[in-house]
Amino acid sequence: MISESPKKILVIEDDTLSRNIFLESLEAEGFETIGAENGVVGIQQAQEHLPDLVICDIIMPDMDGYSVLNTLRQEPVTAIIPFIFLTGSDTKADLRKGMEMGADDYLTKPATVDELLRAI
Fold first, then answer.
1. DSSP states of the chain
2. What predicted TM-score, i.e. pTM, was given to this entire model?
């Protein structure tokens, strides 16, 4: 069996504690992780590292998750990266908006690591 390199996951989350929990949990599962503390940094990281998956909070200062998704979807190299929203907002309107914008999945906080892994 050919072993493939670990999947690279970018976590964009402004809350340091939440971001670190997800990064550490994903690393423990064998993923290569990249963290970004806001949307602007997240977009730079996505363009630089071309992760296999982006997990992104919606409500963040400077640039929200919708803007991150929108920006990534406009660039051919980042447009194909699967994208999961992770948010404290669980209204149907927000869920619908995220899905209509092209998100692949939508998790609400507090999400367990198990829920995150199932979404991946």
1. -PPPPPPEEEEE-S-HHHHHHHHHHHHHTT-EEEEESSHHHHHHHHHHH--SEEEEESS-SSS-HHHHHHHHHHSHHHHTS-EEEEES---HHHHHHHHHTT-SEEEESSPPHHHHHHH-
2. 0.90
What lies within 8 Å, CB to CB, of 117 at 6+ separation is: 29
* pLDDT tens for the chain, residues 1 to 120: 444 667 999 999 999 998 999 999 999 999 999 999 999 999 999 999 999 999 999 999 889 999 999 999 999 999 999 999 988 776 788 888 888 888 999 888 878 888 888 888
Q: Which residues contact 26 (CB under 8 A, 6 or more apart)?
A: 9, 11, 33, 116
Report yes or no: 99 and 106 within 8 Å, Cβ to Cβ. yes
Look at phi and psi of residue 11 and say left if phi exceeds 0, alpha if psi is from -120 to 50, else beta: beta
